[in-house]
Design goal:
heterodimer, A: MetI-like fold, 2 domains, B: alpha+beta, Rossmann fold, OB fold (Dihydrolipoamide Acetyltransferase, E2P), 6-stranded mixed beta sheet, 8 helices, 22 strands, elongated
Chain lengths: 281, 372
Amino acid sequence: MALNVRKDHASRAVIVHAVLLSYTLIALYPVFLIVINAFKSRKGIFREPMALPTTQTFSLSGFEKVLDKADFGTYFFNSISVTVVTIVVVLLLAAMAAWALSEYKFPLNTALAIYLAIGIMVPIRLGTVSILSLMVDLGLVNTLTSLVLVYVAQGLPLAIFILTEFMHQIPKDLKEAARCDGVGEFKIFFAIILPLVRPAVATVAVFTMIPIWNDLWFPLILAPGDGKQTITLGVQQFIGQYVTDWNAVLASLSLAIIPILILYLIFSRQLIRGLTSGAVK
Amino acid sequence: MADLKLDQIRKSYGAVDVLHGIDLDVKDGEFVVFVGPSGCGKSTLLRIIAGLEDITGGDLMIDGDIVNNKTPKDRGIAMVFQSYALYPHMTVYKNMAFGLKLAKTDKSALDQRVRAAASTLQLDNLLDRRPSELSGGQRQRVAIGRAIVRQPKVFLFDEPLSNLDAALRVQTRIEIAKLHQKLKSTIVYVTHDQIEAMTLADKIVVMNAGRVEQVGSPMTLYHHPKTRFVAGFIGSPAMNFTRVKITATGAETVTVEMPGGGTAILPFAVPAGQVGKEVELGIRPEHLELNRDGDLPVTGEVEVVEKLGDSTYLYVGLPNGDRVTLRAPGHSRVKIGEKVTAAADGGAAHLFDENGKAFTKVNCPAEYSADE
């Protein structure tokens, strides 16, 4: 009997891991293809797109082309600043809103939470036309500010939703102990609540940053002008109607992975579990 | 340090009243314990004193000031929670220092206060640990330490020992008693455990269904319960109750008809109008003695025997179906199924009318009295 159970357990584990592994392969393979082809000559890319770079096909011409263009530094800078500023604003506003929604009872509390949840369901791109005319009226076209504003609006609903759930889990006694301890509400939020929801904040940061980094739509519409392009827009200049410079496209895409990877590694370090253990029994 | 006064405190959640006008005086330096069954409103009352719940009606005074609308931090209280509620991301030292640091206390004074509290509670070696690295008893001591460093006017304890195991509970209980002797501070303590209440309190407040049943010293509640509820709640094992009929009343005695037949004459002042009424007679297990004669005889068959070493509890079934608990000496060899007789003095009895109110006992013998 016991042996059977153990066998069942083992075979289940094998199946689960097989599924997870194949999913990982499917997800990573395109990235892998981009990276290996970025290190190949044009001929190498077209003759054997699946092959690893060999001594004959190895070439850094794509990277040379990309780095020769001085603009690329600007594109990186634009993408990074838009992403980082957005993350900071989204996290701060979402955490504060989530704290208010979960902790304080006020009229229309639930209505407000539902209103924000609707923001998760309605794609922001539906409003592109009115967003564009709004930005024109505000004189923000071709600025990074316009992108930050749109991305903050796009990221807030889900961030608030996730953080509210986490804040509900913080024991009530902890907040009340702090209040008895003479801790002000702002201090409770910044010194006690925020450190406790740090794993959730890191999760939300990752959720928020990836669509922003990858977005082509809003940079194309709101800030396509010189000096304001983001990296995704920058890559487009190598894609022509008749000729596409694949070396440069693949090289720039490979480079574009690096900053977001670094940001991800920073946040994933914060995803420590069990931080609340020891607060209450 | 200060006195605390509750004047007709009421609390409702919507249409549900949970506290129906609580009056209470707590003197400076007094150790008061709220005790009662779950849902009697004792924790709510404590949270009202702390300022964590709004007051629906009445006044709350700390040190002579009405503090109804003051926030917890302006009331000069410190609270110790059942769940400890330590800040998990801070060390023991920071947990204790946090409140003071925000109050901009001078750094050396702060350090001194934290270290003094730590040495009182034997936490000196644990100051750099985090709560997750402490045992339950240590966590509770840190929570108490956090309260001590604030030097509050009133300490509030909300069932602080409920999460500890039995041995640690006794030990921490003694520590709290010693702490009170040392600090001489006003303490309000909530528990559902009547042993904690009896051992710690200067004054016990027995609560039931949002009302105060009786306030008094532990011995007053034990010997002179004003209601049947208090009589049943205080004392372990609980008091035995049986229904009896009043057949005659005198100036200082009352004659009742016992359930198994026979009558007993008891020293109570009962109004003549009560003759013929059914009332409730209470007698504590420890006041029943095996194999003797007394005003209140009991005969029955032993159903359950509980040997505790120092004493043996016998659960005796009476002929009329009632069951009586009685305490026998630890060396008692009584077996299940055996027929036993026991008796108690009339002075040990308690008599309650149909509304659960106690009749006044007259000429109460010293051994059954709280008077010193």
